[in-house]
Amino acid sequence: MRILNHFYIVLFLCVFTHVNAQEKKTYKIHTVAFYNLENLFDTINDPTKFDEASPMMELKTNRSAVYKKKVKNMARVIAQIGTDFAHNSPAIIGVSEIENREVLEDVVNDSSLISKDYGIIHYHSPDARGIDVAMLYQKQLFTPISTSSHELKIFDDLSHKRVYTRDQLLVSGKLDGDLIHVIVNHWPSRSGGEARSRPKREAAAKLTKHLVDSLQVIDPYAKVFIMGDLNDDPTNSSVKDILKAKKDKDKVPFKGIYNPYESMFKNGIGTTAYRDAWSLFDQILITAPLVEKDFSSFRYYKAGIFNDNFLTQKSGRFKGYPFRSFGYSGFTDGYSDHFPVYVYLIKEIDN
Asked: 345 and 286 in contact (C-beta within 8 Å)?
């Protein structure tokens, strides 16, 4: 995995340098990313949530020290995504598996991120475990115009009881002057098996598609980013049949959606592993205007998976897997059981 991801990095540098050298053009670049922070819970029991079942709350000793290290580890990763090219951490990053706004305040105020002056957009979800999605943005680069949280109402197919899961976060705003829209997701898990739980993720995809359609009614050329831990691969029905995401940029229709992660998945690349099989649940999909070739405004350039060596398990049964934070023995001093994903946006600027 690491070798192939580094290929994308080298390719980006070569193409970007070649364009400058041959056409004498200068481009501004920003990173848009997503990261599942793997159970970023605080150490305080919230009686309104089932947070006592979180790995953090299950720790018997050193809970405060573990929390501080977990926060620092999350901040370290976010600070490094995109720095090879944009020479900056992400302008925008969606996150999942966070308990509340306070844990994100601790992350953005860590010494590795505080200079970036990240803002936070967060709503509480009705998720039974008390986990939410949120979005961080560098205030000097992105200006929110509107934010909203959209409830996913799903029911268990056997008991017919309501399944409380994460809301979907929609943020619209100006990225360095360009209007964009970001939908942050954490779709229902595969608990009970992939087939039995599939309708829940298909319902989540329908909600996401409804949000995209609503934006496109207002502006058919809306630049929309769909990001998140989808708990489905790029080839599953939720992504292929409901979102109708295409793997080839040239085949994306008007108002269509492009998924740069489908080709990676078919090449055996993933963001999370289970029983020696890779899944690519973490994805960033984009609407057609972002793949146009007019770089007078921000357009998609490259996508990748941030799987640097320090984020990977070095030895043992899970060698090569993401170096997760929590295992059977408690805190591992790791990061997350998911690798972050990112896309680069470029815009031509006057010399």
From this structure: no
> How far is it, in rounded angstroms, from Cα 226 to Cα 203?
15
Tokens for 160, please give them.
């017919």
pLDDT of 9 over the 90 cut: no
Instruction: Give residue 344's identity as a one-letter amino acid code.
Output: Y
Burial class of residue 256 in the structure, from the number of CB atoms within 10 Å of its CB (0-12 exposed, 13-18 middle, 19+ buried): middle
pLDDT of residue 190: 95
Residue 280 to residue 269: CA distance in whole angstroms: 7
The CA-based angle 77-82-88, given to 5 degrees, is 95
Give the model confidence (pLDDT) of 152-161 as tens digits. Answer: 999 987 888 9
Tokens, residue 51: 């947070």
The SS3 call for residue 339 is coil
d(CA 280, CA 139): 30
Which amino acid is located at 216 in the chain? Q
CA 243 to CA 256: how far, in whole Å?
9
Domain that holds residue 322: 2-349
CA distances from 43 to 29, 54, 206 (A): 38, 10, 35
Scan for tokens 């360009």, then name that residue. Answer: 178
Alpha carbon 278 to chain centroid distance? 17
For residues 244 and 194, give the distance between their C-alpha atoms in angstroms, rounded to a whole number: 20
Residue type, 64: S
Residue 202 to residue 180: CA distance in whole angstroms: 25
CA–CA distance, 27 with 14 (Å, rounded to integer): 14
- Report the alpha-carbon angle 344-349-351, nearest 5: 130
CATH number for position 283? 3.60.10.10
Rounded Cα–Cα distance for residues 71 and 64 (Å): 11
- Taking the C-alpha atoms of residue 58 and residue 182, their distance in angstroms, rounded to an integer, is 34
Counting the structural domains of the chain, the total is 1
Token look-up 């090449």 returns 267
Residue identified by tokens 């600070």 is 79
**Burial bucket for residue 276 (CB in 10 Å: 0-12, 13-18, 19+):** exposed
pLDDT at residue number 10: 30
